[in-house]
Amino acid sequence: MIRFDDVVVRYPRASTDALNGVSLSASSGSLTAVVGPNGSGKSTLVRALIGRVRLTRGVVRVDDRDASTVDRAELARDVAVVTQREELAFPVSVNEYVQLGRFPHLGIWRAAGTNDRHAIEEAIEAAGVRELRDRPIDALSGGEWQRVRLARALAQGGRALVLDEPTTFLDVGHEMAVFELLSRVARNGLAVLLVSHQLNLVARFADRIVLIHRGVVAAEGSPDDVMRAEILERVYEWPLVVTRDPAVGAPALVPLRSR
Amino acid sequence: MARIRFLILAAALIGCHASEQHADPSPEPRDDYGTRLAFGVAPKRIVSLNPTTTEILFAIGAGDRLVGRSQYDTFPDSAKLVPSLGPALRPSVEAIIDAKPDLVILYASEDNRPAFDRLRQAGVPTVAFKLDSIEQFRRDTRLLGRLTGDSVRALLVVDSVSATLERVRLATVTLERPTVFIPTWNKPIIAIGGGSFMSELLEIAGAKNVYASVPTPSLAVTIEDVVARNPDIVLVGPQTDSTIRTSPIWRTIPAVRDNRVKVVDLDLVSRPSVTLGAAAVSLANLLHPGIFR
Amino acid sequence: MTASRWLLLVLSLVVAAILAIAIGTINVPISAIGDALRGDQSTPALVVRSLRIPRVILATLVGAGLGMSGAALQGTMRNPLAEPYLLGVSGGAAVGAVLATVVGLSFAFVPIAAFLGAIVAVIAAFFVARVAGSRGDARVLLMAGVVVGAFANAAIMVLLANAEPNVVRNALWWMMGSVADATWPQIEVLFGYVVVGGTALALLGRRVDVLALGEDAAAGLGLDVDRSIRDVFILSSLVAAATVAAAGLIGFVGLVVPHIARGFGARRHRTLIVASGIIGATLVVMADLLGRVLRPPAELPLGAVTALVGVPFFLAKLRHLR
């Protein structure tokens, strides 16, 4: 559903490409994870998708259409994006914040209808933030804030969900809840594209993993294909072993002490 | 013994001080900055940066010795022949010194203190006069006369003006006095206050300044305040006449609405100089038509 | 914001307006206001019709324009210190007005010159931002506005340095702000700008809500971020420029009023902008009244009073933030 075709991005006044010919795809009904060390270009991928950074070469396609030619609001109705950071200068209530997710559908003229209210309700329910509805945003903990942001993205509707590091600040329980939610949402037919640091959780939940290193794809495939010690050691430049987790047998990375 | 000596000393000092005050009938002449005046040789090159003092100098016979004036000093007509040295406030000290004067007369506002000090430091005899009131006109004209060596003419001018003023005063003293409002500026509205010679002229001309109770020469007021004081007559200059008559804001003043606005020759009444007498006559005629044939 | 709060805001404005019409050097009993409106020719009625009502209406429009402009800008810039004079509007308008005064144009031309000056300043700010490599980036525009403002201040100093005292007095008086010379033609023009501009800003309120999330998040929600920022800036500046042309520089209103509105519970920008309009109007009407009665017979400049009134409000808000 979302496809990056040989995308090259260089930031203005930079000496190297942030992305140097990256191709990857996230199909409907699956959870695709993008992983890689800091500065590898993961966030640039997300920025390229929402048009905040210009492509030097290559195309980002949504449903086979060039994303840069699609009307932004239409794109936002199809693809919901949760960026890495978000800070509101003026706090609103959680309810009002989640409602903003319907903006691509409502614009400045339309009033919220039953469809919209429905979508908001479901999103709040799915993200598990019902008790937080009336709280002002600046009174939330880091973890609560992340889940509320997720609720907003879910309220946006659409057929794809792109998230950049959605589980920072989340404790183990909430982290698992988010991954389970994303997995469920993917099962229901959405294309979920997830940028994350959490290699082990990604290995458990993702259908496909794309490993980015210095702006190029270093490895891609199923978790078993990508989670190999020799690949990961080279990319992350740290000694590690890959084992199987005792719960479901997914590959699990264990970092070792430095030599 | 010591106590008595102390008391005698103290008494002597107090007595001395008191007698000092009574010994000289006229206090030491000072200009309007408070600096003592020295009267020596009559100056041959005079710079006067003030419309009032320039006009007075011409009237007392010192006009031919003027080598510099301010750009606003246009009375009498012969003053226009004197080279202009620029503004009267914050003048160019270099331009003044360049004219090689042996007497400089400045307008005594705080703005001119720096110029005053610099000229004195450069060795140029400098004085400053303000002339806000009629009494100041009399006093400063006499002082100007002593400074320029034209005391006799100066006294004659002062006496002549005083006589005219007295004549006008006597002619109007029994008449009914209308209250008068004179605006001199629009944004903000500035009115003539009781401390200005214009207020005195109005008294002499048989009227009363609606702001006579305010001791300053001028003050900022609001239209509503003027409406509240309800002057009988509003005096304006020819340029602002039509603006004021037609402005809906000014027309809230009953005098404007009922056409009791009179145009006064600003050139005549805006300077407390030798024209004071003529100004009083003109005002009296305006406010009490037919009083002087 | 609840209905009762709205009612409170509107009532405050109405009460403020009535007080401002009734109170002054000449106190008009409130019953007489009705007579005045019906065409009574007595002096108090004339004062009400020709002096007080135009002032109060002009003050309402100026306050509403500045309040709405400030609310929209604070949300767009995500900065609680943003205010309507941001893009050099005040500096440019002052240059226009001072230039007109120095050159000797009649008073009627000063508002036009001020408006043109403000527009030129805004265009210059956009130009400077473009040269710096960006079109819609809010921070770059802000810096461009500061640069233009600094340049304008320098120009004013140059113009006034050798000007005659009367010119300087005129210029200073204009810069201190006043609704004393309110005339109906002026009111009509400002009405157009404030109502049309304010309505447009309120309609854009939802976009400002989205912009307030940050530029990346806003783009993710389908907003053309650069264009939206530009639209808000242009509309706000137009409205602010129109208020400056009509009444001179009136500071603090655009800065403080949105915070007061938030204190009343307005959060989403459509509500916030409209509430700021009402509160701004009330503030300026009260400030004008205070300016008229605090130091008779003179009138304190409106810009000074709004600052005096605005500062304590602001301090109270700052304490609240800690």
Describe the structure.
The complex is a heterotrimer of chains A (259), B (293) and C (322). Helices cover 34% and strands 25% of the residues of chain A. Chain A is α/β, with parallel strands linked by helices and 259 residues long. Chain A has a six-stranded mixed β-sheet, with helices on both faces. In chain A, strands 2-1-4-5 form a four-stranded antiparallel β-sheet. In chain B, the strands form three sheets. In chain B, strands 2-1-3-4 form a four-stranded parallel β-sheet, sandwiched between helices. In chain B, helix 4 (113-121) links the parallel strand 3 (103-107) and strand 4 (126-129). In chain B, helix 6 runs parallel beside helix 12. Residues 15-25 of chain B have low confidence and may be disordered. Chain C has one domain: ABC transporter involved in vitamin B12 uptake, BtuC. Chains in contact: A-C, B-C. The A-C interface holds A 12, 47, 50-52, 72-77, 80-83, 85-93, 96, 100-101, 103-104, 106-109, 156 and C 74-75, 78-80, 133, 203-207, 209-210, 212-217, 219-225, 262, 267-268.
The secondary-structure element order of chain C is HHHHHHHHHHHHHH
Q: What is the name of the CATH topology of chain C?
A: ABC transporter involved in vitamin B12 uptake, BtuC
Assembly form of the protein: heterotrimer
**C-alpha-based Rg of chain A, rounded:** 19 Å
Rg of chain C, rounded, reads 20 Å
Give the tally of β-strands of chain A.
12
Question: Which structural class do you get from the secondary structure elements of chain A?
Answer: alpha/beta
SSE order of chain A: EEEHEEHEHHHHEHEHEEHHEE
Distance between the termini of chain A: 43 Å
Would you identify the regions of chain C where 5 or more consecutive residues have pLDDT less than 50? none
Number of strand elements of chain C: 0
Helix content percent band of chain C: over 70%
| The CATH top-level class label of chain C | Mainly Alpha
Instruction: Compute the average pLDDT of chain C.
Output: 89
SS field, number of helical segments of chain C: 14
CATH architecture of chain C: Orthogonal Bundle
